[in-house]
Design brief:
The structure is a homodimer of 212-residue chains. With 212 residues, chain A is α/β, with parallel strands linked by helices. Chain A folds into two domains: 8-76, Arc Repressor Mutant, subunit A (Orthogonal Bundle); 84-195, NAD(P)-binding Rossmann-like Domain (Rossmann fold, 3-Layer(aba) Sandwich). Chain A has helices at 8-27, 34-41, 45-53, 67-78, 93-100, 103-106, 137-144, 158-167, 195-210; strands spanning 31-32, 65-66, 84-89, 109-116, 125-126, 129-133, 148-151, 172-175, 188-191. The first copy, chain A, has a seven-stranded mixed sheet with strand order 5-6-4-3-7-8-9. The first copy, chain A, starts with 7 loop residues before the first helix and ends with a helix. The interface between A and B is large, with 58 and 58 residues. Chain B binds a DNA duplex (22 and 22 nucleotides) through residues 1, 5, 7, 9-10, 33-35, 43-47, 49-50, 52-53, 57-65. Chains A, B: Pfam families: CoA_binding (PF02629), Put_DNA-bind_N (PF06971). Chains A, B: It comes from Humidesulfovibrio mexicanus.
Chain lengths: 212, 212
Amino acid sequence: MKSEHIPKATIARLATYIQVLSEFKREGTDVVSSERLAEACSVNSSQIRKDLAYFGEFGVRGVGYYVQDLITSIKRSLGIDRAWNCALVGVGNLGRALLRHREFSRKGFIIRGAFDCDPYKIGEVVEGMEIVCSRQLPAKVKELGLDIGVITTPPERAQRAANYLIGAGIKGIINFAPARIAVPKHIHLEYVDFFHYFYAAAFHIRFDESRD
Amino acid sequence: MKSEHIPKATIARLATYIQVLSEFKREGTDVVSSERLAEACSVNSSQIRKDLAYFGEFGVRGVGYYVQDLITSIKRSLGIDRAWNCALVGVGNLGRALLRHREFSRKGFIIRGAFDCDPYKIGEVVEGMEIVCSRQLPAKVKELGLDIGVITTPPERAQRAANYLIGAGIKGIINFAPARIAVPKHIHLEYVDFFHYFYAAAFHIRFDESRD
DNA sequence: CGATGTGAATGAATTCACAGCA
DNA sequence: TGCTGTGAATTCATTCACATCG
């Protein structure tokens, strides 16, 4: 199959598959069928087979998938069989929490630079990293080979942070600030807003209640 | 129109609409067309009209939408025209960051209880809130009228946290822990994993690079 | 007139059902 | 035999196009 266009939802599910497969691996399970994996991920089994088919043939007919091999294959498919160097812009509450979050480097996203334009913060050391003025982004992106910019500024400064990152030659931006930003279309942009999940929960809970 | 079933994607977009409309409001814009709103949200204008039509008729033909009225209508549609009381379970790095995050109460999600089963943490005060043993959840859920449970434990303790919350009579769960959990189907469950966004960025960046 | 609200048309994603292979 | 891989069928979401109404 090996298609050109891959649904956005497929990418999201592949991340879940890795999570669940890692769990299987820890439990000592070597082989898993799409049926069993599907159940653990709460999806349809042919959904899994189709998602994987976009990238290649990873299973063995009549047997299933070898857990470790499948993890490796999915990681390669997603492009996380390597490290990605990240710049974090905006060292407030959320920024600090991300800097402290051990999971980032464990998953291959290494935060190599922390930037802020607040003179009171510049020079401060967080998690062994010195906070640097955002104006130094162009130099640092080149020096450290930074790939992805992570915006954790207040909303009103998100666009400026994006501009710095884009000017510095970053390839992708993950925006945690609650603001829409404009970027040229060769820059990949992702919005992260976990309030979406709270809204969805609130909506469904109230909806369920109103049906009684 | 006022339909029964509402697409998941619609809920997610409504959250974006609120964000952008609030921005318009701050700028002093009173009336907005679906065309203009669509541009700011990077979606199609009929998408917006259809999303809104699921909940009612909020616009004025030939004019557009009154910004403040539309914010109010969407909030009511989503069920966030009221406060939601939340219990946070697992006071680690991420849990603390959420407790400190001012935006929660501002958006109507009030964290009223912080729970952990680590005896070293119990009794500690974070952001004016005393950390309480998770075993006290049933009492506290009733006492404080808690609606939504927020799980920020390590993955291996997520299911136990969920069990406590479910037993205590919570209505919905938002799981930040990188683990799948099982809940009865009357409990609304949302998974939050911001690594999904990093994976998606990595995938697309590498994909774009390989096309040159 | 001008922008909404909405059926109808299109497009995308998911699921079914089974051929094909270890 | 049993489970993968995949075209076909179905379901779901988005966009179009225009009737409708302030």
